[in-house]
UniProtKB/TrEMBL annotation, chain A:
Domain of life: Bacteria
Source taxonomy: Bacteria, Thermotogati, Deinococcota, Deinococci, Deinococcales
Gene3D superfamilies: Alpha-helical ferredoxin (1.10.1060.10), FAD/NAD(P)-binding domain (3.50.50.60)
Name listed for the protein in its UniProt record: Oxidoreductase
Residue ranges constituting the FAD/NAD(P)-binding domain according to the UniProt record: 130-422
Ranges that cross the membrane: none
PANTHER family: GLUTAMATE SYNTHASE [NADPH] SMALL CHAIN (PTHR42783), GLUTAMATE SYNTHASE [NADPH] SMALL CHAIN-RELATED (PTHR42783:SF3)
InterPro entries on file: DPD_II, FAD/NAD-bd_sf, FAD/NAD-binding_dom, Helical_ferredxn
Limits of the Dihydroprymidine dehydrogenase domain: 11-117
TrEMBL record, chain B:
Ranges in coiled-coil conformation: none
Alphabetical list of Pfam families matching this protein: DHO_dh, Fer4_21
Family statement drawn from the similarity comment of this UniProt entry: Belongs to the dihydropyrimidine dehydrogenase family.
Keywords from the named record: Iron, Iron-sulfur, Metal-binding, Oxidoreductase
EC number: 1.3.1.1
Source organism: Deinococcus aerophilus
Superkingdom, natural source: Bacteria
Catalytic activity of the protein: 5,6-dihydrouracil + NAD(+) = uracil + NADH + H(+); 5,6-dihydrothymine + NAD(+) = thymine + NADH + H(+)
Protein name, per record: dihydrouracil dehydrogenase (NAD(+))
Known function: Involved in pyrimidine base degradation. Catalyzes physiologically the reduction of uracil to 5,6-dihydrouracil (DHU) by using NADH as a specific cosubstrate. It also catalyzes the reverse reaction and the reduction of thymine to 5,6-dihydrothymine (DHT).
Quaternary structure annotation from Swiss-Prot or TrEMBL: Heterotetramer of 2 PreA and 2 PreT subunits.
NCBIfam families named in the record: PRK08318.1
Location of the 4Fe-4S ferredoxin-type domain: 336-365, 391-421
Length: 442, 459
């Protein structure tokens, strides 16, 4: 193992927290726009000018409340949101100078209360209604927090050992330390939510049990593992998600590779590549199309370049090469872009006879996540592999709601969208429970 | 290169930037250093009766993260022995013959006390004496400072004691803690003052500390009022300067006025000069940033004068004074409206909320398609794209009363302009109008009739 302290430092949160003066100066820069575009651009519609003004006046607790009332996962979102695409991208100061560092200010306020263990919210007066939430990712936590504050009894079932979903297992430490994600799970517990980890929903029978014991069920299942590529040597591929997870939870098991190839060019691929790079490897990303078709955000791509990560475009891996049980390289074929495919992007085609080898000692696959297979098992309607829901996040099954990555058939999956789904679902579930409550008493 | 030299009541200096009597002029070593940085003159920290200073004597005002917009002090006059100060004054004047060295003094209100100190000051070779009738705290309780400055008779008498015995120019430094600054000025002139200076510090309680619940500065658990100075007092100082320099009595006497109060930069200084100050003094800005600020003051003023074609200070002194009027002389028929430059507007909508909540509700929000919309947004739409669909504020000019609130809140320079528009109303001043039709000033009916005649509609 290389120098451990240096390695772990390399994997610390990238952006340092604001100091009090920095936060105050930045907060004072905000114009406190009226009907502000940043508020509209935030999927959870946090009242940004208000929370920033509260930082400016030294009312950090009030600021955190403004944030967390709209977005219970404000601490995670402050770190992981693609702010350039959302709030900061819409800030009126983009045209003048630099947009306000909304994400970092949000983190400043939320950390202030969470690091001090200040409880800002309480469970509502008991309604006598019970809701089961499956999956403790951002969607599950958000819906649980909302429902608990409305007085409903919530049981949160999570199959893994730790709660938090991808915030805990999937977001690299450079962006969010595990403690932050776990603090949010604890905050939900503080609201009286019964978080049961190590509890998996596996089949229709299980769902029926939940439906018999609870008044409503919310499914925040997220997505699955990295799909198989179906190429020879597949067994030598490292799963990108697993690789990131290990870097967060048990960094000591990560392989010590010097030359790493990452397959894929999305956000997961960039994250995995960043971790490998920060651990000292030289890293090359293979992508079968060009820069123009990449799904990663522009700033992510630029970040990867600034980290010294190399890109090879129009390159398709066809075989993982190994010798003596160790990876020695990836055999690739050159691609050319053809007419648009089903997704509307130019379809890549292999150029026969253009095979070549990229030597390396580890290959990470990060070509996406599998669709929620459980959906079909549960008998839910799906669209394109994702759970089908209506505008109120209700699935095809009465009393069953869903949200987050498992329903996100369109648009980019992100934490903040999952949080907003949770809010919508909670509102719908509350409406359902309130009406049946009246009916029962009426 | 403009000529910045000053000739003020017989006192000469290479430039109009003088350090005010205060901590920056507390000792020979300091003033020596200040002169090395280029200050044109210095008014020595007030000398006089024995005093004992206390700790924790300053409190600062921070607004919006900007520190020291004002300072408030409970300091007394110089706490260094008189003979030490006098010896150093003589030395400084010998070393710096071209700079203005003025000695500020404050003693008991008696002719003997003044005679004694004036003789000692004359012996130092200083260029002038400034009488400190201004300090509002500490000394006033002992019958000096503002206690003299606030009573015109005392001011006149004390000034007379000094002017009748000295051959040096005597500057009377006025306290702003009065209702009519001109009364104090007349008294000083009657007492023979050769020049006036203003403003000294303003009575103030700076703040209450929300952690300790103590008044600041907290001196062993107690607080008292102090003297307020710094950028925040500039408008008050400019007003008092204007009052003096438009006052017939002061003008007739021909005494020059040295301006101070909130000068931070050459720009502030230029404003004082345009309103008639013959030289300026600076305290808080030097306390905040050190003597080095004078370099830009000299450089900036001289560059600006070159740009404007002013060869020397007399070319610009008092240039803004002819505009000074009373409310009654202003043109009631003048009409301005706010005009927004859509290319500069960043759509912060601050003008909209200001006008809508607290002015005359004459700004509309107009969506890119040209439709008037209400504030609010579609919660299903998000992302940076919303910036493109944002409505733009548009002024309904016929309804705009020209209050200029929007122009004041707009964060973008030059985005909202107050444009003068042709007016159908008669160009008449209030004084003229009420001389002609006195009933307008006393009867709402008459007023409404006049408005109707003029087609004035107020929303
Ligand atoms: C590598 C990577 C990086 C990312 N980076 C960002 C980023 O920077 N910014 C951003 O906004 N988004 C990012 N995302 C996306 C973001 O993490 C997700 O959109 C978000 O976590 C979705 O929340 P969720 O609650 O829907 O699902 P998840 O976070 O996936 O949570 C689902 C939870 O449900 C549990 N679960 C699943 N099935 C069952 C079951 N049958 N029984 C019990 N429990 C179950 C899972 O164990 C998991 O805890 C990233 C995603 C990945 C993979
Ligand atoms: C700490 C402090 C001490 C002062 N001491 C004196 C003094 O001894 N004599 C005096 O005439 N004025 C004194 N002043 C007033 C200044 O000379 C000056 O009139 C006032 O500060 C306004 O100028 P400014 O805004 O540039 O500071 C003092 C001001 C301050 C801030
Ligand atoms: S939640 Fe995300 S998008 Fe919304 S304001 Fe915070 S950082 Fe920006
Ligand atoms: S748009 Fe920018 S300046 Fe305006 S309120 Fe939002 S963060 Fe502040
Ligand atoms: S205050 Fe200025 S920049 Fe802001 S919306 Fe109004 S005109 Fe535009």
């Amino acid at each position: 193992m290389t120098d451990v302290p240096a390695a772990s430092r390399a994997l610390q949160e990238l952006l340092p927290p604001f100091g009090p003066h920095e936060a105050s100066a930045e907060a004072h820069r905000c114009l406190y726009c009226y009907d502000a575009p940043c508020v509209q651009a935030c999927p959870t519609h946090i009242d940004i000018p208000t929370f920033i003004r509260k930082i400016a006046t030294g009312n950090l607790r009030g600021s955190a409340r403004t944030i967390l009332e709209a977005n219970f996962l404000g601490g995670t979102c402050a770190r992981v949101c693609p702010v350039e695409e959302l709030c900061e991208g819409a800030c009126v100061l983009n045209s003048e100078e630099k947009p306000i560092a909304i994400g970092r200010l949000q983190r400043h306020a939320v950390d202030h209360v969470q690091e001090r263990g200040v409880q800002l919210f309480r469970p509502g007066p008991p309604s006598g209604r019970r809701v089961a939430v499956v999956g403790s990712g951002p969607a599950g936590l958000s819906v649980s927090a909302e429902l608990a504050q409305l007085g409903h009894t919530v049981t949160l079932l999570e199959k893994r050992e730790l709660g938090g979903g991808l915030s805990t297992y999937g977001i690299i430490v450079l962006r969010e330390p595990v403690e932050v994600a776990l603090r949010e799970v604890d905050a939900v517990r503080e609201l009286g939510v019964d978080v049961q980890t190590g509890h998996e929903l596996t089949d229709r029978a299980g769902l029926d049990v939940l439906l018999s014991e609870y008044d409503a069920v919310f499914l925040g299942l997220g997505l699955g593992a990295v799909p198989a590529m179906g190429i020879p040597g597949e067994e030598h591929l490292l799963d990108g998600l697993r690789y990131i997870e290990d870097s967060k939870i048990r960094p000591e098991v990560l392989p010590d590779a010097q030359n790493v190839v990452v397959i894929g060019a999305g956000n997961t691929a960039v994250d995995a590549a960043t971790v490998a790079r920060r651990r000292g490897a030289s890293v090359t990303m293979l992508y079968r199309r060009t820069e123009a078709e990449m799904t990663a955000y522009r700033h992510e791509y630029e970040f990867a370049l600034s980290e010294g990560i190399g890109y090879r475009f129009l390159t398709q891996p066809v075989r993982v090469l190994s010798g003596g049980g160790r990876v020695t390289g990836v055999e690739c074929v050159r691609m050319v872009l053809g007419p648009p495919d089903a997704g509307g992007r130019p379809g890549p085609r292999p150029l026969p006879g253009s095979e070549f080898v990229v030597p390396c000692d580890a290959v990470i696959s990060a070509i996406g996540q599998e669709k929620p297979a459980l959906a079909v098992e549960l008998g839910l309607e799906v669209t394109g592999g994702y759970i089908a829901v209506d505008g109120a996040m209700q699935t095809s099954m009465p009393r069953v709601y869903a949200g987050g990555d498992c329903v996100r058939a369109r648009g980019t999956a992100s934490t903040v969208m999952a949080v907003q789904d949770g809010k919508y679902a909670a509102a719908a579930i509350h409406r359902l429970l309130s009406s049946t409550l009246e009916a029962a008493h009426g | 290169m403009a000529d910045l030299s000053v000739h003020f009541a017989g006192i000469r200096a290479p430039n109009p930037f003088w350090l005010a009597s205060a901590p920056p002029t507390n000792s020979g070593a300091q003033i020596h250093r200040a002169f090395e940085h280029g200050w044109g003159g210095a008014v020595w920290k007030t000398i006089g009766a024995p005093v004992l200073n206390i700790s924790n004597r300053y409190a600062g005002l921070s607004v919006g993260g900007q520190r020291l917009l004002a300072i408030n002090n409970v300091e007394l006059i110089s706490d260094r022995p008189l003979d030490v100060n006098l010896r150093e004054i003589a030395e400084i004047k010998r070393l710096w013959p071209d700079r203005a060295v003025i000695v500020s003094a404050m003693v008991d209100a008696s002719p003997e006390a003044w005679r004694e100190i004036v003789m000692m000051i004359e012996d130092t070779g200083a260029d002038g004496i400034e009488l400190n009738y201004g300090c509002p705290q500490g000394m006033s309780e002992r019958g000096m400072g503002a206690a003299v400055g606030q009573v015109p008779e005392m001011c006149e008498l004390n000034t007379h004691w000094v002017t009748s015995i000295t051959r040096l120019p005597v500057i009377v430094k006025l306290t702003p803690n009065v209702t009519h600054i001109t009364d104090s000025a007349h008294a000083a002139i009657a007492g023979g003052a050769h020049a006036l200076s203003l403003i000294n510090t303003i009575n103030s309680v700076m703040s209450v500390d929300l952690d300790t619940l103590q008044i600041t500065p907290s001196i062993g658990g107690r607080g008292t009022h102090g003297g307020y100075a710094g950028p925040a007092v500039k408008p008050i100082a400019l007003n008092m300067l204007t009052e003096l320099l438009t006052d017939e009595g002061v003008l007739r006497s021909g005494v020059p006025v040295c301006g101070m109060g909130g000068i931070q930069t050459w720009r502030d200084a230029a404003e004082f000069l345009l309103l008639g100050a013959g030289a300026v003094q600076v305290c808080t800005a030097a306390m905040h940033h050190g003597y080095r600020i004078v370099e830009d003051m000299i450089d900036g003023l001289s560059n600006w004068m070159d740009d404007k074609g002013f060869a020397a200070l007399p070319d610009l002194t008092g240039r803004a004074l002819p505009q000074v009027s009373t409310f009654g002389q202003l043109d009631l028929g003048y009409q301005a409206v706010a005009r927004i430059d859509p290319d500069r507007c960043i759509q912060c909508n601050l003008c909209y909320v200001a006008c809508n909540d607290t002015a005359h509700q004459c700004i509309d929000l107009v969506a890119p398609g040209g439709v008037r919309v209400n504030p609010g947004y579609d919660p299903r739409v998000n992302g940076r794209a919303v910036a493109d669909t944002r409505p733009t504020p548009v002024v309904r000019e016929p309804d705009c009363v020209g209050c200029a609130l929007c122009a004041n809140v707009c964060p973008v320079d030059g985005c909202i302009e107050m444009v003068s528009v042709p007016s159908t109303q008669e160009h008449v001043s209030w004084d003229q109008l009420t001389a002609r039709r006195p009933e307008i000033a006393s009867s709402w009916e008459a007023m409404m009739a006049y408005r109707k005649e003029q087609g004035i509609e107020i929303h």
